Amino acid sequence: MSHVFPRHxxxxxxxAVAGQGCYIFDSTGKKYFDGSxxxxxxxxxHGDPDVTEAIKGQIDKIAFAHTGFFxxxxxxxxxxxxxxxxxxxxDRVYFVSGGSEAMEAALKLARQYYLExxxxxxxxxIARRQSYHGNTLxxxxxxxxxxxxxxxxxxxxxxxxxxxxxxxRGREDGETAFEYGQRVANELEAxxxxxxxxxxxxxxxxxxxxxxAGAVPPVEGYFKRIREICTAHGVLLILDEVMCGMGRTGSxxxxxxxxxxxxxxxxxxxxxxxxxPIGAMLCSHDIYEAIENGSGFFQHGHTYIGHPTAxxxxxxxxxxxxxxxxxxxxxMGEKLDASLRDTFGQHEYVGDIRGCGLFRGxxxxxxxxxxxxxxxxxxxxxxxxxxxxxxxxxxxxxxGTIDGVQGDHILLAPPFIMTGQQIDEIxxxxxxxxxxxx
Length: 438
Ligand code: PLP
Hints:
Shape: globular
Helix content: 25-40%
Family: Belongs to the class-III pyridoxal-phosphate-dependent aminotransferase family.
Strand order of the largest sheet: 4-10-9-8-7-5-6
Number of strands: 15
CATH architecture of the largest domain: 3-Layer(aba) Sandwich
Bound molecules: pyridoxal-5'-phosphate
Cofactor: pyridoxal 5'-phosphate
Radius of gyration: 21 Å
Keywords: Aminotransferase, Pyridoxal phosphate, Transferase
Structural class: alpha/beta
CATH class of the largest domain: Alpha Beta
Pfam families: Aminotran_3
Number of helices: 15
């Protein structure tokens, strides 16, 4: 009997024993194409020798030094490099161990920022109904995923949720994409007015929505309007790039493509590329200065923040993402998109194929003309995951109720090192899975 407390107590997952390039091997020798990098983590694939060497080199020097006493060379170098590449104005980096921790830190930093400025009222957070920001209590309260949130609702901070920017389902007949984006962005203005601007601390959003909807990019102009509204009301804009950041969408930070910057920006997953657990929160000079000129102490911190070995791994990853490998994402993403459209574009049960870079989603519907989803009891997304896994493809399935609509989605987030031939491998294996399920 296993003594591991697994994610799913009734599942019996295979044992992963090796990884090489885009593949994972289990203990029976079966080979899986890592089509979603777990959950958009393994951007460099498995067994990258440079990252492995960087980790070994750091452990040989010093594996860990507590940030209450020391800083470290890799943390300093990684923060320098991240801020050099980050959107304008984000010039401080707070390292954590993952995405939820980054979001939790962001929420607390936002609150402390206002307190340091003598504004004790601002505490309300607004987010979107189609979102996932992590599983710790603050991050969970912020996310819009009802089934994850509901059991813990009595324990949560107050948040409110506005409409997502979800063109496939939200854009009305006769409305342009731009008009649609402005309309849903203006829900933020209305919600701020409803709550009273003096009470609102932050708006939180994923630039490209990942886990709840399968790679949903915003329409043009949406985030510009969001930024305008936040600035006008002194509401901090927290962008969650935990899944869509670190080159996944074709630029190092997804928000670069919207021409906006955040006050606080969170990254994780691809930052350590799975080689080490690490996340980070980048913040603006203004926010850092408020702390520095105020109490001088951010009332937060975990034992493993700024872990030197994790930072050394992330530094090696970042050097690759800002080089030739990062430049592969846009062209390879276009090829993947074309291949998905060729193979599934006319499929009776495929409602939408979307995304950017190597972050692609397929939405499954029972009726393409009405966009009617399948009955959730059929568990279509889980069935597709199982069938794809059987065929040797690991991809990320999602289902969830968004604005009362149950959706089935598949997320693909393959390693950036993937070849053209491997794109065919993904679509072939996914086709096998579709044939098995439908
Ligand atoms: N934010 C987003 C957008 C995510 O997709 C996730 C994880 O899937 C998180 C936050 C939480 O990150 P972690 O699982 O590393 O805590």
